[in-house]
């Protein structure tokens, strides 16, 4: 440990190159030889059922798809170290989105078009049931260009080997198109309209205006840029990993093929904002005759909706035509220091795949862990309906608290001490940091203490606070408070927060939390708002982790249902 810390501190301060992307390439750190003996056998932070490879750095999910009944997940991977470096596409397959089998590296430097790295991209299934990948390659001049790849043998159920089309790159910056060669990346899944023409988006920026460039093709090989982007928004910076897909307006949890248009669907445009590392989305109308998108609420910046208000980035959806779902995958980066990552021997996980659909309001998406995860649940414990008085804390015994799935619902009835909401409280994350777990309010904080040590020296608290606004409406704040998550001082312990658009009196307040050693993935308001946190307790590990339900407000709340399951380990690597 001491040796690694010394090495890291000696190396900090030089050797870092910014490749005009969201990742730093530190040639020194990434090339430190990494003897297996340096990886600790004691791995309290390895997840048991979240996706992660055995070792090294991972980031964005790439090209997810279901093909002939098998799920394929590709991902950005550094095979040589625990920090980002020019990536290859690693590959795993699954029949249930939970248990994964590693496959050989699918894409690595092969031709000029990707000689300096194979960055993110997406899958499209072409007519004749042929899967095709479009991704960003870095050419010898480090320009970002778009590259087309196919499986070598579509009869191989695992699509183990891939090759790059000879005429790559298929989209590239030229003096005529004036595309910024260091901000041109991450093609979406393509969609095809009744004219038989494919469309695809590529993320970019012009100055500080974030933009989704639109390209068209008849044959998927020759692409022509449409003069106007599909959509742009000023001052939002580089748009990474765009995603554009339709959702049914019938508010049922079913998905729809990416090429679907019509009055029965709305469209979602998601972008990963490089400046803030947030995945934000809008819901709107795709005006396909005009090759344009008009969001219902006219902005695409930090005030837009987010998939996840915690540590979550570079997500991507795909349509599962077997189960008729749209499934969302995302990357949860570490919050630990590079020195700690080097000791662990790995960095980065993916969140549990989420089913996404449009809320009945039409104003936001609902996200819910895919039902396959429930096969890992065992030994449920339940707590009977009861009032949870202000100032109370109850331990939930009989569950493996470091590896659990918990569902809890609260009823709200005691409004006598409810606090007034101030109009100036516009930033929920800031509010959560000011009104943390230990700050008692009229109604809240109440929720769960996860990954808690017996004496509460460590815990990650996920909770609600309820306020009354001037218009007599209720405001529900959901927080994930990491400030006491670890006695280790080095991880980033930022608190996360979001306002949940529910009426707590009429609907109650629900929380589902997937706890998995170093990740706490929390779904509030039946999937309306999600917060993912990465935490590194030193005491609350393995069997020494505890789980509590608490109410640190003055008013009481009612527990209307509470079930917690121990979770089995998934087969991942
Ligand atoms: N990660 C990839 C890029 C993408 C970024 C490089 C987002 O393609 O823009 O590893 O995390």
Automatic annotation (TrEMBL):
Entry keyword annotation includes Signal: yes
PROSITE patterns: GLYCOSYL_HYDROL_F32
Residue ranges occupied by any Glycosyl hydrolase family 32 N-terminal domain in the UniProt entry: 50-369
Region forming the signal peptide: 1-21
Signal recorded as keyword: yes
Keywords in alphabetical order: Glycosidase, Hydrolase, Signal
Membrane-spanning segments: none
SMART domains cross-referenced by the UniProt entry: Glyco_32
Glycosyl hydrolase family 32 C-terminal domain sequence ranges: 372-566
GO biological process, one term: carbohydrate metabolic process
InterPro entries: ConA-like_dom_sf, Fructan_Metab_Enzymes, Glyco_hydro_32, Glyco_hydro_32_AS, Glyco_hydro_32_C, Glyco_hydro_32_N, Glyco_hydro_beta-prop_sf
GO molecular function: hydrolase activity, hydrolyzing O-glycosyl compounds
Family: Belongs to the glycosyl hydrolase 32 family.
Identification of the protein by name: Fructan 6-exohydrolase
Organism: Spinacia oleracea
Source lineage: Eukaryota, Viridiplantae, Streptophyta, Embryophyta, Tracheophyta
């Amino acid at each position: 440990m001491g040796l690694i810390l010394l090495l890291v501190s000696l190396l900090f301060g030089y050797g870092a190159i910014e490749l005009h992307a969201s990742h730093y390439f530190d040639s020194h750190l990434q090339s430190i030889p990494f003897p297996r003996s340096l990886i600790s056998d004691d791995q309290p932070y390895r997840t048991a059922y979240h996706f992660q490879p055995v070792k090294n750095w991972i980031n964005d999910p790439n090209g997810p798809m279901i093909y002939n009944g098998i799920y394929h997940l590709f991902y950005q991977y550094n095979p040589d170290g625990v920090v980002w470096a020019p990536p290859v596409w690693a590959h795993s397959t699954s029949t249930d989105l939970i248990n994964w089998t590693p496959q050989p590296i699918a894409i690595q430097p092969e031709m000029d078009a990707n000689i300096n790295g194979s960055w993110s991209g997406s899958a499209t299934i072409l007519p004749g049931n042929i899967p095709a990948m479009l991704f960003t390659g870095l050419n010898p001049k480090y320009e970002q260009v778009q590259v087309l790849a196919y499986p070598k043998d579509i009869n191989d159920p695992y699509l183990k080997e891939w090759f790059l089309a000879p005429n790559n790159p298929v989209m590239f910056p030229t003096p005529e198109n004036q595309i910024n060669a260091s901000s041109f990346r991450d093609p979406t899944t393509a969609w095809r309209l009744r004219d038989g023409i494919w469309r695809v988006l590529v993320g970019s920026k012009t100055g500080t205006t974030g933009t989704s460039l639109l390209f068209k093709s008849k044959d998927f090989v020759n692409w022509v840029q449409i003069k106007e982007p599909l959509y742009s928004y000023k001052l939002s910076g580089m748009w990474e990993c765009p995603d554009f897909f339709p959702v049914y307006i019938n508010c049922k949890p079913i998905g729809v093929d990416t090429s679907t248009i019509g009055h029965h669907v709305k469209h979602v445009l998601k972008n990963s904002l490089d400046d803030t590392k947030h995945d934000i989305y809008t819901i709107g109308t795709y005006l396909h005759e005009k090759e344009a998108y008009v969001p219902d609420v006219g902005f695409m910046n930090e005030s837009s909706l987010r998939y996840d208000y915690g540590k979550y980035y570079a997500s991507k959806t795909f349509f599962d035509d077997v189960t008729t779902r749209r499934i969302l995958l995302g990357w949860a980066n570490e919050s630990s220091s590079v020195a700690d990552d080097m000791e662990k021997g790995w960095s980065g996980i993916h969140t549990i795949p989420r089913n996404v659909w449009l809320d009945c309001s039409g104003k936001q998406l609902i996200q819910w862990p895919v039902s396959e995860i429930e096969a890992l649940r065992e030994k449920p414990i339940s707590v009977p309906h009861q009032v949870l008085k202000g100032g109370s804390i109850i331990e939930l015994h009989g569950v493996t608290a470091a590896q659990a799935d918990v569902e809890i619902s609260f009823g709200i009835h005691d409004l006598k001490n409810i606090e007034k909401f101030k109009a100036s409280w516009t930033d929920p994350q800031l509010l959560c940091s000011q009104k943390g777990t230990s700050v008692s309010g009229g109604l809240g904080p109440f929720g769960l203490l996860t990954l808690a040590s017996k004496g509460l020296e460590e815990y990650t608290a996920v909770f609600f606070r309820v306020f009354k606004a001037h218009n007599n409406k209720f405001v529900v704040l959901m927080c994930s408070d990491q400030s006491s998550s670890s006695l280790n001082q080095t991880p980033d312990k930022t608190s996360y927060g979001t306002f949940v658009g529910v009426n707590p009196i009429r609907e109650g307040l629900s929380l589902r939390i997937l706890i998995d050693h170093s990740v706490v993935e929390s779904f509030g308001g039946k999937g309306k708002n999600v917060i993912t946190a990465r935490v590194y307790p030193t005491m609350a590990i393995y069997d020494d982790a505890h789980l509590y339900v608490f109410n640190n407000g003055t008013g009481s709340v009612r527990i209307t249902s509470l079930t917690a399951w121990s979770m089995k380990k998934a087969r991942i690597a």
